[in-house]
Amino acid sequence: MGLHERRQREKESIRANILQAAFGLAKTEGWASLSMRKIADAIEYSAPVVYDYFENKEAILYEISINGFHCLHIELLKAQSKFETPEEQLIAIVDAYWNFAFKNKEYYQLMFGLGMQCSGKGQMKEEFSSFQDLIYECTFNIIKKNGSNPDNACHMSHALFSAVHGLISIMMMRNSDIPSTMNKTTLDETVSAFVKSL
């Protein structure tokens, strides 16, 4: 390995360590307490080194958000690929979204600005719309199969996204006084009623 390749690999390693340290701190202390100084201390470098790789904390949060949306997208595609009918695919996609949110709370909170400012606002249109695009596709296919008006697919799929995201947000922000079983039951009933309404 040449000197240039070795330096490039070292830079990539430091960048990855910065992101990993930031995410680790968020898990233990919360996103609100994250600072460039804490990240630098965690990787045992000076703060200026961190600034060499990221302009500010927001740039780090944005990078982590992108990774979160990428991980979510993979989970949604996996769920969709397991089923043939659009009805089954829709249910599987919503379940995968729900499961991702609660298995990856720190990601989800950052990705959608729960309890904090949303990272990368207006910059992540493609990543942000993955879930909406997939449920729109399923909704459109169900409507088409049922002989209903396909013009309603956009409005209907947006309503479902709003309901699912709303339930998750309530659960995350008020989990001390709302039983998880009630919310999952509500989610399942909402999706079932949604499919029947198409």
Automatic annotation (TrEMBL):
InterPro entries: Homeodomain-like_sf, HTH-type_Tx_Regulator, HTH_TetR, MT1864/Rv1816-like_C, Tet_transcr_reg_TetR-rel_C_sf. Residues 12-72 form the HTH tetR-type domain. GO terms for molecular function: DNA binding. Gene3D superfamilies: Tetracycline Repressor, domain 2. Residues 35-54 bind DNA. Pfam families: TetR_C_33 (PF13305), TetR_N (PF00440). Keywords: DNA-binding, Transcription, Transcription regulation. This is TetR/AcrR family transcriptional regulator. It comes from Chryseobacterium antibioticum.
